[in-house]
Hints:
Elements: E1 12-13, H1 29-41, E2 47-49, H2 61-75, E3 81-84, H3 90-103, E4 107-110, H4 123-136, E5 141-145, H5 155-164, E6 168-173, H6 178-189, E7 195-198, H7 205-211, E8 215-216, H8 223-234, H9 238-259, H10 262-270, H11 288-301
Parallel strand pairs: 1-8, 2-3, 3-4, 4-5, 5-6, 6-7, 7-8
Amino acid sequence: MTSTPRTPRYRGIFPVAPTTFAQDGTLDLPSQRRCLDFMIDSGVDGICILANFSEQFLLSDDEREVLTRTALEHIAGRVPVIVATTHTSTAVCVERSRRAQAMGAAMLMVMPPYHGATFRFPERQIYDFYARLSDAVSIPIMVQDAPAAGTALPAAFLARMAQEIEQVSYFKIETAGAASKLRELIALGGEAVEGPWDGEEAITLLADLDAGATGAMTGGAFADGIRPIIEAHRQGDADTAFALYQRWLPLINHENRQAGFLAAKALMKAGGVIACEAPRHPCPGLHPEVRSGLLAIARRLDPLVLRWGR
């Protein structure tokens, strides 16, 4: 009989911190620190930095270094920090990951190697990529199974990596049919799958929790709304979990389907957390009507983000 996942070192809500820029596109580190303080005050169990929702694809290597050091030094152990270190090159990913671990990262989040719309690699190369990364570090690795990579990662393959590669033990499942994939991964991987996690801004959160997810990586703006859903579900209170999810779903949906990674920044700017909500060029800013709709939904819910900096 397949064993069940072991008690995870990390569980709960680990939202993605946006990267804050000034209007001219330079890093705004004072706003970045305020963003992290707000996220901790909102009740997160941990924070992820340098993810896709952090605009990591628009950052230089030197900026990644500055942001990693700034975040880890400022958070100073108040909550664990996951650092995303994805790169197509095994050697570059290994070096990024070693530096992040040395600076105090609790976990690494890494997508499978890919580049653009067509450069993909076979399972043997992906397996070796994660195996070499595992050999280079001593902290957990979260495999990010996201549509952005365009790389098929069957549950059986993920389970085999969990069982055979020492540090590969967490999995953020963001593909279509996430709950079914989580269920299969847990059944196949058993105790080697320490952390089966939900992603995609919690748009499939309740189904994923029902499937056995123990963590959720969401947008960074309203953990105070999402964490109680996770806690009610963990305590077996399905009615409360459903009611809370039903209440917050319009905001979750607007972030996931309309505003994307700019939702957190827009909410944080509206609440005085950060000075500027602009993305880095060439990303366009939010359409005014999308922003207006986001704020209108949020005001009905009164999340901490709209009050924290006022």
